[in-house]
Amino acid sequence: MKQLHHIFEKIERIFVILSQTALVIMMILIAADAASRYVFGQSIIGIYEFTERYLMIAVIFLSMSYVAKLDGHIKLDVLIDRIPASVTEIFNTLFQLLGAAFIFAIGYQGMVMTYEAWSNQVVSTGLIAWPVWLSYIWVPVGAYLFTCRLMLQFSQSLLLLLGKKKRQFIVKKEDVI
């Protein structure tokens, strides 16, 4: 389990770096577009569409798994604070499994859409005909990565509930990218 977790951490790190790179590229392109509008009085063609349909999707989907690792997704703590810790652990374990199933379904649908867009050579409707599958591909990649993260967390939570294992894989501040 530790070796599997270690391999997954390395893969996840690669995709987080890709997400961060997409964010930096997005900032540079938007700044260049704003400067172009100010200096030349005209936008750079395709920047808005490229950042909206390609880079933003990559930033969001490629970082979802890492955010789950940091326990950074939105939660409703109103009820959690009022129920016993043992019940909270059961709910968390159940929600990790249900979340993994839901995200897997999103990934599957994204994979189907990506394949259809690729095989039919679908392009975007704009001044620049970008291939749409390059936008869609980040949905299944990020969703399957997130599914793996949720399943790792589920297995760890289940082992904790069953008393078979002590708490492991806690994120330390020095592990944060």
Q: What do these coordinates show?
A:
The protein is 73% helix and 0% strand. It has one domain (2-175). The two termini are 23 Å apart. The protein contains six helices and no strands. The chain has helices at residues 2-40, 47-69, 77-80, 85-119, 133-136, 138-161. It is mainly α and 177 residues long. Helix 1 (2-40) packs antiparallel against helix 6. The model has no long low-confidence stretch (mean pLDDT 89). Residues 26-157 form the Tripartite ATP-independent periplasmic transporters DctQ component domain. One of its GO terms (cellular component) is plasma membrane. InterPro entries: DctQ (IPR055348), TRAP_DctQ (IPR007387). Belongs to the TRAP transporter small permease family. GO terms for molecular function: transmembrane transporter activity.
Q: Give the low-confidence spans.
A: none
Task: Give a quick account of the main beta sheet: strands, pairing sense, barrel closure.
Answer: none
C-alpha Rg, in Å? 20 Å
* Strand residue percentage: under 5%
Query: How far apart lie the N and C ends?
Result: 23 Å
What is the helix/strand order? Answer: HHHHHH
Q: How many domains make up the coordinates?
A: 1
Into which percent range does the helicity of residues fall? over 70%
Shape: elongated
How would you state the average pLDDT, rounded?
89
Q: Treating each run of at least 4 consecutive H or I residues as one helix, how many helices?
A: 6
Give the tally of β-strands: 0
Q: SS-based structural class? A: mainly alpha
Domain Tripartite ATP-independent periplasmic transporters DctQ component: 26-157
Protein name: TRAP-type C4-dicarboxylate transport system, small permease component
Family: Belongs to the TRAP transporter small permease family.
Subcellular location: Cell inner membrane
